[in-house]
Design goal:
The complex is a heterodimer of chains A (about 120) and B (about 375). Chain A has one domain: Sufe protein. Chain: A, CATH 3.90.1010.10. Helices cover about 45% and strands about 25% of the residues of chain A. Chain A is built from five helices and three strands. In chain A, strands 1-2-3 form a three-stranded antiparallel beta sheet, with helices on one face. Chain A is globular and about 40 Å long. With about 375 residues, chain B is of the alpha/beta class. In chain B, the strands form three sheets. In chain B, strands 2-8-7-6-5-3-4 form a seven-stranded mixed beta sheet, sandwiched between helices. In chain B, strands 9-10-13-12 form a four-stranded antiparallel beta sheet, covered by helices on one side. Chain B has a two-stranded parallel sheet with strand order 1-11. In chain B, helix 2 runs parallel beside helix 8, helix 3 packs parallel to helix 4 and helix 5 packs parallel to helix 6. Chain B is globular, with a radius of gyration of 21 Å. Classes of the chains: A alpha+beta (about 120), B alpha/beta (about 375).
Chain lengths: ~120, ~375
């Protein structure tokens, strides 16, 4: 069972879409289950100002990308680098164990996007 | 489940009221063990005999050829292991799109008991060629198992032709007919089939009740031993209420079949038409011609089936995917891969299976809902 928060982010994804003037950008996928994720970041003064994303995969991947886009707004880039999958799962009210890879994929792509900025 | 559009009848079906009524006395006063000697037990025994006779008649079999089981998984396991271990031959044949309750016992016999296993490929249309089965046969082939109708894509196999080939060579033939029996008449008096599996809950009967038909003269090593029930071929106190429910469900299924099949086909074709008019690049998996009338399996590229199923559920439409991802495995459907679909295509597939309670209005509503969810998910997907 998915939490109400996870389902809300899945049904009403925040900040979905592309960022044409992105400072950082990365893609990634989980070949085991076919999830794909693309993240764009706008960064100034060592902080994330905006994150946008596109995702294809199970509901937790979409929800994890959505909630992360809210979490990282205004966040210090060093803090973003330290962001853990568990924090994303907590923000969603939990992710079923077999779906934890969804948050891990977001963390992986987000770290790559920060590096490119 | 009020207001829910249920499109997952290949997974299970709702118990019919007539079936519930047929079961009720055996969950109440008639609880005696049919193997006991007192009168109430003998009453139960005689009701059980009547049910067995009715089931046998509906299938064109003899009552002594029917053994009641806990469902299709047991029936398939019993048929495969029961025939394989009863003789000296050491080669088994099946197809790439069988249910796991056929594939896994076959693989287990190969891994642990030294059997050779040949898994025959199917065409892109989801059908196996009789010639492909024939060329897989060996002098020591112990058993061939081919499903009548596939549970994911609904494609029908040329069972009669395969059966004739095997009969000429005296090779036992097992058929998993779990999905077929709702819509195809089965007459075992004429069909060249030696063992056949059925399940009650796929035909509006109770879960935990199934049967295995074993043609008289077929060598069989029982999976379960203990008491002498089912003529020493399946030990264990009979699931009396389950058997009574199964007999009632099979009787209703047999009498409703022509009307149910025509109705399901009309609804299925309407659903497909509605989907095709709303969703670009939608593709049907498997032959539409040689197929169960209630089955639709489609690929919607760019639309991951697992998130689609969640979106549909939230919108009141329940269906299934070709993928086993939701049941814990991350592997895409072995059936869709066997048709030649890529992993990505297999993960973007949706199985819609209709039943007796679905309506034309539901088909339109379901198509609108599926198209809306698919469009939303496609907009989210990376280019």
């Amino acid at each position: 069972m998915f939490s109400e928060t996870l389902l809300d982010h899945f049904q009403h994804p925040r900040n979905a879409g592309e960022l044409p003037d992105a400072d950082g950008e990365a893609t990634g996928e989980n070949p085991v289950c076919g999830d794909r994720l693309h993240i764009w970041l706008r960064m100034t003064d060592g902080h994330i100002r905006e994150m946008r994303w596109r995702a294809e995969g199970c509901a937790p991947v979409i929800a994890a990308a959505s909630v992360t886009s809210e979490m990282v707004r205004g966040m210090d880039i060093d803090a973003v680098r330290r962001l853990r999958a568990e924090s994303i799962a907590d923000a969603l009210g939990g992710i079923p164990k077999r779906k934890e890879h969804a948050a891990a994929l977001v963390v992986m792509v987000l770290r790559r996007a920060v590096v490119t900025g | 489940m009020p207001d829910l559009i249920y499109l997952d009848h290949a997974a299970t079906t709702r118990l019919r009221p007539e079936v519930r009524a047929a079961m009720a006395p055996f969950l109440d006063d008639l609880y005696a063990n049919p193997s006991s000697v007192y009168r109430v037990a003998q009453t139960v025994r005689s009701k059980l005999d009547v049910a067995r006779d009715a089931v046998a008649r509906a299938l064109g079999a003899s009552p002594s050829e029917i053994i009641f089981t806990s469902g299709a998984t047991e029936s398939n396991n019993a048929a495969i292991k029961g025939v394989a271990l009863a003789g000296q031959r050491r080669h088994l044949v099946t197809t790439a799109i069988e249910h796991h309750s056929v594939l896994h016992p076959m693989e287990e016999l190969a891994a642990r008991w030294g059997f050779d296993l040949t898994v025959v490929a199917v065409g892109a249309d989801g059908r196996v060629a009789p010639a492909a089965i024939e060329s897989a046969l060996r002098p020591d082939t112990a058993l061939v198992s081919v499903m009548w109708a596939n549970n994911e894509i609904g494609t029908l196999q040329p069972i009669e032709e395969i059966g004739e080939i095997l009969r000429a060579r005296r090779i036992p033939f097992h058929v998993d007919a779990v999905q077929a029996v709702n819509y195809l008449p089965i007459n075992l008096a004429t069909a060249p089939i030696d063992l056949l599996s059925l399940s009650a809950h796929k035909i509006y009967g109770p879960k935990g009740s199934g049967l295995l038909y074993i043609r008289r003269g077929t060598s069989f090593f029982p999976l379960l031993t203990g008491g002498g029930q089912e003529r020493n071929r399946r030990a264990g106190t009979e699931n009396v209420a389950g058997i009574m429910g199964f007999a009632e469900a099979l009787g209703l299924c047999s009498s409703d079949r022509p009307v149910a099949a025509a109705r399901a086909r009309r609804l299925r074709d309407r659903l497909l038409e509605e989907l095709q008019s709303r969703i670009r690049d939608l593709r049907v998996n498997g032959s539409l011609h040689d197929r169960l009338p209630n089955n639709l399996n489609v690929t919607i590229p760019g639309c991951h089936s697992e998130s689609l199923l969640v979106a549909l559920d939230l919108a009141g439409v329940v269906a299934s995917s070709g993928s086993a991802c939701t049941s814990g495995s991350l592997d895409p459907s072995h059936v869709l891969l066997a048709l030649g679909l890529s992993e990505s295509e297999a993960r973007s597939s949706l199985r819609l299976t209709l039943g007796r309670e679905n309506t034309e209005t539901e088909m339109v509503r379901a198509a609108e809902t599926i198209a809306g969810a698919a469009s939303r998910l496609r907009r989210l997907a990376p280019v």
